[in-house]
Structure prediction request, 144 residues.
Amino acid sequence: MDVIAQRVAAAQCGSNPSVIGRMKSGWLVIGQTQPLPGYCQLLADPVVPTINDLKGDARAQYLADMAAVGDALLTVTDAVRINYETWCNLAPSLHTHIVPRYASEDPEKATCPAGTVYDYDAARPFSLEQDGPFMKAMRRYLNL
Prediction:
């Protein structure tokens, strides 16, 4: 079981502290590190390898949930745009990185994919104490 499938299993049993809430298509979680404030992931549940494995309403729901998270991030942070990254290369379980981007970013980084210019491993780790207010605001906005 890859790391994404493990996080989904932990969310299902209530033991994943990074869970913001259950959406119709899966679990919204805050990133384990915060290279940019408000970085989240949408984890598909049930777990499937790629978006192409979702059909019809399930695919439409995943994409709608992804966009709704972006709307929420634009409202609860001072982000100026949202990047959506669905790769599923390293962990072949469908998940999307939803990354708020800010006017305050270094201009040389602002136009590049966050994963290529920010060191996610060295970023501030998720902290329930520090990130709790953000998570609560996201829950409120998304009615989770």
Summary: Strands lie at 19-22, 26-30, 33-34, 40-44, 81-85, 95-101, 124-125.
